[in-house]
Design goal:
The complex is a heterodimer. Chain A is an alpha+beta fold. Chain A is built from three helices and six strands. In chain A, a hairpin with a 5-residue loop joins β3 and β4. Classes of the chains: A alpha+beta, B mainly alpha.
Chain lengths: ~120, ~425
Amino acid sequence: MPKFMFVYRGGHEGMEHATPEEMQQVMQVWMDWIQGGVEAGWLLDGGDGLKPEGAIVNADLSVIDGPFTESKELVGGYSMVEAHDLAAAIELAKGSPMPQSGGTVEVRQIMQPGMEGS
Amino acid sequence: MKHSTSQLVEHFFRHESANLVAVLTRAFGIRRLDLIEDMVQAAMLEAMHTWKQSGVPDKPAAWIHRVAKNRILDALRREKIHEKAISFTGQSIRDQESIVDQWLEEEHLPDSLLRMIFVCCHPSLERKTQIALTLKTLCGFGVSEIARGLLLPEETVKKRIQRAKKSLAAANVPLEFPVDDRLVQRLDVVHDVLYLMFNEGYSTSLGSEPIRDDICEEAARLCHLLCESAYCLPVTKALLALMLFQAARFDARTDEDGAVILLEDQDRTRWDRCLIMNAQSWLAQSKTDQPTTFHLEAAIAMQHCIAPSVEATNWETIVRLYSRLMQLRESPVYSLNRAIALAQAGDTCEALMQLESLQSREEMQNYLLLDCAFARIHELDGNTQSAIDACLRALSKAVAPHEKELLERKLLKLTEKR
């Protein structure tokens, strides 16, 4: 079955002032979603979060620290999933907590050896 | 078990942020409270972002402690203050770090939390401010949650907390235990704050937000912490018993739609037997030659909890307990409740006389429960029309929708009887 990568961006807006209880609730929603995906079998790897600090190395080898200026452009993490096709993967992505929290999920099929891009 | 949340107990973030604030304030001083709160908030955010995808680490508390501690130490270093000035106790930052580590160990946490209780209940602060500050600092509630729980505008809560922090910082109040004769006085304040905090959450006349149950739970948690410490007096145990007796009836107090169910209509099988037994044990341990109002109120709450029904309740004992309460402290609320108990015990005549004498008091003019008490006593007396009249009087004063709804239900019941 084709594999896909979910790339999460943004979704942290307004969380700086969240109360501890609200943070715990947000986390719980994610945990439940990941747990559900693992149990159903389509979530291959919940992936990891990415730290906001980072750098971009340009073609001229110049380095920009802090990959993006705006948090909504910031890649916050990724997951690996399995689905029949792109449409099915998109449906799975719609079910993630990301869109609800104002962020985006980029869905990309992973190219595998001996497999057409289809 | 990469993605398990099982290590994350309920209210983990809230309680860990309270633990951190208490320990770090003890280490770096009340003047740093704002900075400490910011750094703790940042550590919580970092935990949330990291854990929501990668899963909760093996020792989540230790993880958060480490991040928060590093953040505050970095922030203090960035301030480029001389090392000596950084430490509240005059130690170098490295010594300070190992002290913080030690204080953050589970068995040492209560010590810092108790010190913080005394600071939040500092006598220089107004009672309402003490409650708000306790909820913020020791329970980890946000301003918006406190505002919802206490039914106050957010701005009011924010201002109260800011003013409190400012005045505590100006006085540089240390996180230490009061000693000698001051201890009992300071404990009195702490008891009062916890009692009022519990009442704020408990009062059904203010609606039934889930946050209000959390406030009760927090008051009981802090009281329990005090009971397990060296600063426990008999009255502390009586207060805990009182809270637990009341908490035992929580679930039976409202129906699925959140509507209030009166004592007479509550399903007593839904009362929490475990909590009742627990409360009885604390009350037994609270024995003293000089029972306080908390002792007597707990004894009354127990009488309700052990009674199989309203009719089979030992109302004579309850009347006696209210009489003793009134000897300790004059309060129209005690008189009112004593009158209801009197009527339940069969003496409606005396009960009505008592209520009538209360009616003339100014503070009782707009007191909804006085009319409700009249209604109840007339009902017990078989005087349905007077009961209806009293209910209508109460209805004209009721403000909250759920109060109106409750009274309307009662009226319907009475009209059917007529």
